[in-house]
Amino acid sequence: MSKRRFEGSGLRIYTVLYLLFLYAPIILLPLFAFNSGTIIAFPLEGFTMKWFDLMIGNATLRQALFNSLTIAVSASILATCLGIFAARASTRFEFPGKAGIMGFIMLPMVLPEIIVAMSLLVVLLGMGVQLSILTVIVGHTLMCMPYAIAVLSTAFGTLDKSLEEAAYDLGETKWSAFRLVTLPLVMPGIISSLLISFTISLDEFIIAFFLAGNQPTLPTYIFSQLRFPKAIPMIMALGTVLVALSIILLALGEYFRRRGNARIGAKPTGGFL
Question: What is stated as this protein's family in its record (predicted)?
Fold first, then answer.
């Protein structure tokens, strides 16, 4: 009994140390964001909001934020729309090469992002396409699609097929049954896919670094400012805002995912959080 208790204590200690290692840097962000000193070190000098004021008044930062929001909204909508088609096809139909096609679509999830970014850069430049926000949207859509499909496949896969069949028996066409029956039932999964794709796109750096050209996104702007020590506190303030936004979006995505599973009677899973 004592040996089992010792093993249980060891596991708890390991868990606490692992969580501290994982989240301590994130916890330090708001500490230094509200610190009046320009040097990132302890002891803290005092409380201030001036770094957030500087962040709001920075025109280049605002433009980078606008670019990132434009890219994230566009990529999340495109990835979710394409994910609906792929998830619907993979959960409702059988066709030759289904496993291989779906595996190919999900490949960006496991490939190193720098390989994907370099490949897209070579292809786009070879086609004579000028690098801009549009090229970043293409790259982010490619990266977000596997995550959107993973969420939407669960929503479509756990949906009772008899509901659609009942709609057909009542005289609905395939399109009207999908619009009136299927779509409302999987809507929480669609919202979850949008939020998760938005978060992934907003935080993505490597593809934006390769494909943005001379139009900076928020991650590339942060990277460029790390060379200037006086800009670090403002970046800490910006990082605090981004972490809070990411947590809120992921929490909302998980809420809608679980709500969708409960609505269609699916068993709860571990999810993203």
Answer: Belongs to the binding-protein-dependent transport system permease family. CysTW subfamily.
Measure CA 123 to chain center.
25
Q: With beta carbons less than 8 A apart as the criterion, state whether 232 and 40 touch.
A: yes
pLDDT at 59 over 70: yes
Report CA dihedral (243, 245, 247, 252) to the nearest 10 degrees: -170
| The pLDDT value given to residue 77 | 94
Question: Is the model's pTM score more than 0.90?
Answer: no
Q: What is the 3-state secondary structure (H, E, C) of the chain?
A: CHHHHHHHHHHHHHHHHHHHHHHHHHHHHHHHHCECCCCCCCCCCCECCHHHHHHHHCHHHHHHHHHHHHHHHHHHHHHHHHHHHHHHHHHHCCCCCHHHHHHHHCHHHCCCHHHHHHHHHHHHHHCCCCCCHHHHHHHHHHHHHHHHHHHHHHHHHCCCHHHHHHHHHCCCCHHHHHHHHHHHHHHHHHHHHHHHHHHHHHHCCHHHHHHCCCCCCHHHHHHHHCCCHHHHHHHHHHHHHHHHHHHHHHHHHHHHHHHHHHHCCCCCCCCCC
What was the pLDDT predicted at 272? 45
Q: In the numeric block, which tokens belong to residue 220?
A: 């590339």
Look-up: residue for tokens 């030759």? 96
Name the CATH architecture for the domain at 59-263: Orthogonal Bundle (1.10)
